[in-house]
Amino acid sequence: MAKQVSLVVNGKAAPVARGDSLLEAALGAGILIPHDCCTGQCETCRVRVYAGEVDAQGTQQGDTVLACQARVTGDAVLQFDAVPEVRKLAATVSGIRPLSPDIIETTLLLKRDFTYLPGQYVKCKFSGYPSRDYSPTLRTDGTGERNELILQIRRQVGGVVSADLGTRIRPGHKVTVQGPYGSAFHRVDTGRIILIAAGTGWAPIWAIARAARYREPSREMIVIVGARDPRNLYMAESLAWLAETGVARIMPTSSGGKAAGILSGRPTDHMPALRTDDTVYVAGSFEMVAAVQARCEAAGTTCHADPFVASVAKRTIRDRIAGFFFARAVNWPKTAQTQSTENLRP
Fold this sequence. Notes:
six-stranded parallel beta sheet; Ubiquitin-like (UB roll); Elongation Factor Tu (Ef-tu), domain 3; Rossmann fold; alpha/beta; 346 residues
């Protein structure tokens, strides 16, 4: 039998066994640490180690580790941020509109109000399709209701869900929403807040930026956004609002084309020299997020990351049957249009 040690999580102490993951140990003691994938990809279970030692299993960032991977090695004191409870809600598609050649805004109308922290993500299962992860955000003009989820989705060639948005998936389509998840949400702090996004990574970053300007308007903010095709820099209206509220350093970038007012290169090419009291939020491709994380680690800068990884899940036979009957039951508006894309996560 493994020797027991003391694990204190958010002030609650429990005897646990050495060798267990922090998540397993806490759950076994009746302490719920927020979690989702349990594979070390989603970042939902990141906790701060205030005292003692744990085996981080390669997940350490500053004084934080992923609870699903890190192992108990001795007495330790942990803390995690309080987040809204995970819920499952019914929703319907209420709107689809293009934001750029490859990006589509999809609005879901919920049966009840839904609470999430700016920067978190949800799981959406369109009826007849496999589940996908998206970051709810605000419209590019900053509007949005408590009973709406506004998604910015990239059209993927051959995408199981995104290719059908605007065709098989139209206003009225039923959706099951579960969440929220994720630890890369806005936190009030001191020092500069540096926001970095690529593609539809702008969705969580826009939610964070908007919250920060209202909650801490005097805090210095730097915004860097990128897209391969400058036509997919769909957030001009949002960037203009940030400038109007006093954000002086806003850098739209493109690595695949030139346009007036757009810097050449990737977002990482235009990062400022980092300070230890900076806080960086980054969302986008796995490669871009990893590059930013490496720079933050080298500089001793706090980094909250939200990498997107394309899902390979296909429609099951059950999904296809459900989709067939749902399509027959809905009177699709003939004027509905557009296709779109997924900002997919682990």
